[in-house]
Amino acid sequence: MKYISFAIPCYNSEAYMEKAINSILVGGEDVEIIVVNDGSKDGTQKIAERYQEKYPTIVKAVEKENGGHGDAVNCGLAHATGKYFKVVDSDDWVDAESYQKILAFLKEAVKEEEPLDMLLSNYVYEKVGAKHKKVIQYHSILPENRYFGWEEIGHFHASQNILMHSVIYRTELLRSFQFELPKHTFYVDNIFVYWPLPYVKKMYYLDVDFYRYFIGRDDQSVNEKVMISRIDQQIRVNKIMIDLYAKHESMLSCPQLKEYMLHYLETIQMVTSVLLMKMNTSESEAMRDDLWHYLEEKSPDAYKILKSSVLGKFTKSHNKLSHKLTMGGYKIAQKWIGFN
Predict the structure, then answer these.
(1) Which residues contact 31 (CB under 8 A, 6 or more apart)?
(2) How far apart are CA 252 and CA 270, in angstroms?
(3) Is the pLDDT of residue 323 over 60?
(4) Cβ proximity of 16 and 40 under 8 Å
(5) What is the DSSP letter of 116?
(6) Cα Rg, the chain, nearest whole Å
(7) Which of 54, 88, 111, 289 is the most exposed place for a label (fewest CB within 10 A)?
(8) Residue 58 in contact with residue 33, Cβ under 8 Å?
């Protein structure tokens, strides 16, 4: 039995993908590693095939036409045979000691009569040059050492969203609602985490620093200049998340789940708004207004709540003082968390 299928989306990743693969190989025959070559123009495919030849029962080298990160995740999910599914980006890696604890837990979890839908763990910002490595953990928010549901979660702070790095989903859960990420779009990791949330019933949190999130390449998608150059894709993701919230809004009977989904949506709405503010053009102002109008149209209640929040008041406003204060707060957050 394969307990976890790890998908590694790769695009021109020859310089660093081996570290990701090697870190996951520690799991041995209990896991499978699906290396998805998303139309690379370098030696990515040769490296993937070399690992597949050496570890034929663990590694799958899948080659496809370029479709973007989300399409590579879709491809990985289509090939997955493991009970659980995890995405590891090709420039990231996992911690060996934490990995063993996660595998040991899942071996017991699959024996449960009611299946576990989502396993959560911590992740670490591995930012180049940073002396202090910021760890995102949830022990103040989530119950530990037992299964739980949404009604038992606490309040998440701005820096504590459940990201792709911290989540492992049950494979069949993702397949049960025709999950599919958009092609040729960056930042879809937010959709990957957000979309399944209303379908999740049973959760567990392991307080281990499992995922290592590398920050430091100039061409990295989370590099601020790169994000601004791809603002259209950030807006696309933001609007898809608004659509998902609006679709499920009336069916979210659990107040804690509804609050968390709104909290996550607020974070993305603010990130997009801040990036548009940093562009500081008449066109970017119009795009920011359009985004807030879109939220108002799709979910009047969410719009009312978000525009009245402290962050909403600053990031929605065209006031010069609001702009200055927002930029100052953004710089502090960058330094404190080290997210780009």
Answers:
(1) 2, 3, 4, 5, 6, 24, 58, 82, 103
(2) 23
(3) no
(4) no
(5) P
(6) 20
(7) 111
(8) yes
Can you tell me the distance from the alpha carbon of 61 to that of 48, in angstroms, rounded to the nearest whole number?
A: 5
Place of tokens 């995922």: 211
212, β-bridge pairs: 93, 124
What are the tens digits of pLDDT across the range 55-80? 999 999 999 999 999 999 999 999 99
Q: Beta strand 84-87 with 203-215: parallel, antiparallel or unpaired?
A: unpaired
Helix 300-308 to helix 231-248 angle (10° resolution) is: 120
- Please state the rounded mean pLDDT for residues 122-132: 84
- Cα separation, 170 vs 28, whole angstroms: 20
DSSP code, position 134: -
Tokens of 159: 């820096």
**What are 87's strand-pairing partners?**
7
> Which residues, in sequence order, are CB contacts of 95 under 8 Å at separation 6+?
23, 124, 208, 209, 210, 211, 212
Rounded Cα distance between 98 and 104, Å, is 10
CA-CA-CA-CA torsion for 288, 290, 296, 297, nearest 10 degrees? Answer: -160
Instruction: Give the separation between CA 105 and CA 224, rounded to whole angstroms.
Output: 37
Q: What is the DSSP letter of 188?
A: T
Global pTM reads 0.91
Q: Which of 75, 77, 71, 74 is nearest to 183 (CA)?
A: 71
Angle at 331 between CA 138 and CA 141, to 5 degrees: 10
Tens of pLDDT, residues 221-271: 456 788 888 999 999 999 999 999 999 999 999 999 999 999 999 989 988
Q: Which residue's structure tokens are 């499920």?
A: 248
Query: In angstroms, rounded to a whole number, what is the distance separating the alpha carbons of residues 154 and 141?
Result: 5
